[in-house]
Design brief:
Structural class: mainly alpha
Strand order of the largest sheet: 1-2
Number of strands: 2
């Protein structure tokens, strides 16, 4: 079975898509439910979706706010000893939302503080770029003379 995913297919292009060997197509933007529906329609499979688990009361992102705040403070202190050019690259990757680049920079930060690198990687994996930028700003405030990078 071949399902084409396209950004430009109009209903009248359906015949051409089917003619080149596709069984069906889905137009972008699509929802996951659209793909599941195609799989059900063409293969007859049914999906059982689990309900998301609720975090325990008072717990957010695997920890309470106080411990997150203390983790963030430790990370910003660690970032204050990172070379300014590496910090600028971390900022640039965060601004651009480049997850792969962020992970490369985080690996370069790891020798300075592995725990801080782990925390940054978790934030990056959850697309919490504004939090990473806030940590960078806090580190800069603790290190006068470091100039912010322009994301252009």
């Amino acid at each position: 079975m071949v399902i084409a995913v396209t950004a430009s297919a109009f209903e009248e292009q359906r015949a051409g898509i089917l003619m080149v060997g596709c069984d069906d197509f889905v137009r972008k933007p699509f929802r996951a439910a659209d793909i599941f529906e195609m799989l059900h329609h063409h293969l007859g499979v049914r999906f059982v979706h689990a309900e998301p688990e609720e975090p325990p009361a008072g717990e957010v992102d695997g920890g309470d706010r106080e411990s997150r705040s203390s983790d963030d403070a430790a990370v910003s202190r660690s970032l204050s000893i990172v070379p300014p050019d590496l910090l600028a690259e971390l900022e640039r990757a965060s601004i651009l939302g480049s997850l792969n680049h962020l992970h490369l920079i985080i690996e370069q930060i790891r020798p300075y503080n592995p725990d801080a690198a782990n925390r940054l990687a978790r934030l990056a994996d959850r697309f919490e770029y504004p939090r990473i930028l806030a940590l960078i700003e806090e580190a800069r405030e603790a290190t006068p003379g470091v100039i912010p990078v322009d994301a252009r």
